[in-house]
Amino acid sequence: MSVLYRLSQNNNKKNTKAYGKWYAHAVTTNKIGLNDVALRIQQNCSMKKSDVKAVLDELIEVMTQELQNSHAVRLDGLGTFRMGLSSTGTVTVREFNASKNVVGVHVCFQPEQKRGADKKMIKALVAGVTVKEAPKNTVMPEPKEDEGEDTGDNGGEGGEGGQG
Predict the structure, then answer these.
(1) Of 6, 74, 84, 151, which residue is 20 to 30 A from 136 by alpha carbon distance?
(2) CB 31 within 8 A of CB 142
(3) Mean pLDDT computed over 81-99
(4) SS (H, E, C) the chain
């Protein structure tokens, strides 16, 4: 297994250090939903898919409540989730109005880190990862009609992110 990438050239003339250089961007070739995750977990343990799905559904509910109460949620072995905000600036503190200046709310994820035998930090989910260039015609298939809304979102990570 490898993380696939494609190369794209930076065409932003305003960024003189990066302009014209080629950068790798992660490619997503498939997306699995909560049902698929539950099925995979069922195959690796003694729980039924329906039990696993019920636990995952409840995890989402609890995480939503905790995050919306300004609590970070740490899942041992995975990482920590917390809320983040995007806002426009004001010249003075008095000018700031949350309903006007807060323009977005998002979830931040920090993978858990452990120190390896070589004393370097190793992040959960990326330990031992390899990368290779994606085949030229690799595309993500459209979701099946019966899948409905996908709940296995990756939080907006991957895809066509920033340069470098």
Answers:
(1) 151
(2) no
(3) 97
(4) CCEEEEEEECCCCCCCCCCCCEEEEEECCCCCCHHHHHHHHHHHCCCCHHHHHHHHHHHHHHHHHHHHCCCCEEECCCEEEEEEEEECCCCCCCCCCHHHHEEEEEEEEEECEEECCCCCEEECCCCCCCEEECCCCCCCCCCCHHHCCCCCCCCCCCCCCCCC
pTM: 0.72
Q: Is 107 exposed, middle or buried (0-12, 13-18, 19+ CB in 10 A)?
A: middle
Paired sense of beta strands 22-27 and 73-75, if any: unpaired
Structure tokens, 42: 């069922």
Q: Kindly report the CA angle at 19 between 18 and 22, in degrees rounded to 5?
A: 70
Please say whether the dihedral angle defined by the alpha carbons of residues 63, 65, 68 and 71, taken in this order, is positive or negative: negative
Encode pLDDT of 46-64 as tens digits.
999 999 999 999 999 999 9
| Backbone dihedral region for residue 97 (phi beyond 0: left; psi -120 to 50: alpha; all else: beta) | beta
| Tens digit of each residue's pLDDT (9 = 90 or more) over 97-143 | 999 999 999 999 999 999 988 998 999 999 889 999 998 865 666 66
